Amino acid sequence: MLCAARAWTLPRGALKPCRHVLSRWPVASLSGSGAQPRPLPLSYNLLDGDAGRPAIVMLHGLLGSKTNFNSVAKALAQQTGRRVLTVDARNHGNSPHSPDMSYEAMSQDLQGLLPQLGLAPCVLVGHSMGGKTAMLLALQKPELVDRLVAVDISPVETTSVWDFRAYFAAMRAVDLPGQVPHSHARKLADEQLSSTVQDVAVRKFLLTNLVEADGRSVWRVNLDALDQHLDKIMAFPSQQDPYPGQTLFLIGGNSQFVLPNHHAEIRRLFPRAQLQTVPHAGHWVHADRPQDFLAAMRGFLA
User: Fold this and answer.
1) Considering the domain boundaries, does residue 19 fall inside one?
2) DSSP state of 46
3) Which SS3 state, helix, strand or coil, does residue 63 take?
4) Contact 92, 61 (CB under 8 A)
5) Which position among 48, 102, 182, 224 bears the catalytic label?
6) Residue that finishes a domain, picked among 225, 247, 274
7) Residues spanned by the domain of 201
8) Catalytic annotation, pick one of 60, 97, 262, 283
9) pLDDT grade for 4, boundaries at 50, 70 and 90
10) Are both 212 and 168 inside the same structural domain?
């Protein structure tokens, strides 16, 4: 469920960023036993656009952040004229940390944020883990979701091609000196990760989570919570009532995350679903084939 953004250029335009919430990863407590998960104040970027049309809201995957969508979010705002919101999930990016990493909790976070920003109903776009969050929110609160896009993920248990537990352990084991420039710390962390994470692209993606805080280089993701709840993240909560809105499942042609035996459950929960394959794209569809991703989004919104 990794997602990464590779650099590509975008012509300069008159895009105007709006509010941006930042936090230093405070730890939030769990709600009382049996209570609904307590929404957290998520970090987000909002690009301005036509308030008369549903905004596009983009949710990243496991170990990602809202910055994974920087290029395609700007392009979508420019090409569609809509507002585009990118959000850091709890325990990721600049959003608060919490011991709860369930999809129910992540759905609750958005149920609090979207009406607060006046962005409901929205076009909800989720990649991988973010796609499962988007699907659950649409199933639970269809009035908040005008249309739904799930990027290379299904509403079933995911069998990942990556060993996330090994990645978490390798990230925890990184040992960095206290007072070194961040660029040097990244190089040292890369060297220490290389024995476990041999894929250079995956290592670079993991290292997007190494940031400088208070003069030290630290992991901004909540590795303990992600590790503890990995089985839940790979699963999908059981649901009965289908989502009645238009839905697009955008599938990487070279990916194994959405399989033919998932189609029946997709059709059951999302009866108006379109399944579209993007040739030559892996799991990171929006990064591997950004122009094809944008074309698919424009077609779906037309």
Assistant:
1) no
2) E
3) coil
4) no
5) 224
6) 225
7) 164-225
8) 283
9) very low
10) yes
160 flagged as catalytic: no
Would you call 128 a catalytic residue per the annotation? yes
**pLDDT per position as a tens digit, 201-221:** 889 999 999 999 888 899 999
pLDDT digits (tens, 9 = 90+) for 134-165: 999 999 999 999 999 999 999 999 987 678 99
* 82 and 138 fall within a common domain: yes
Per DSSP, the three-state class of 159 is coil
What is the spatial distance between Cα 250 and Cα 53, in angstroms, rounded to a whole number?
A: 22
Report the Cα 269 to chain-centroid distance in Å. Answer: 21
Angle of CA points 193, 169, 182, to nearest 5°: 45
Q: Which of 182, 202, 225 is the last residue of a domain?
A: 225
Cβ neighbours of 254 (radius 10 Å): 14
50 with 90, same domain: the answer is: yes
> Any catalytic annotation for residue 183?
no
CATH at residue 39: 3.40.50.1820
3-state secondary structure of 145: strand
Residues 262 and 294 in one domain: yes
How confident is the model at residue 139, as a pLDDT? 98
Our count of domains for the chain comes to 2
Q: Residues 289, 153: one domain?
A: yes
Neighbours of 262 (CB within 10 A): 19
From 43, 65, 128, 154, active-site residue: 128
Question: Helix crossing, 103-116 with 129-140: angle to 10°?
Answer: 70
Residue 73 tokens read as 């979010």
Do 134 and 264 lie in one domain? The reply is: yes
pLDDT at 5 over 50: no
Q: Tokens for 48, please give them.
A: 């301005």
Which residue has tokens 């499962």? 132
SS3 assignment, position 60: coil
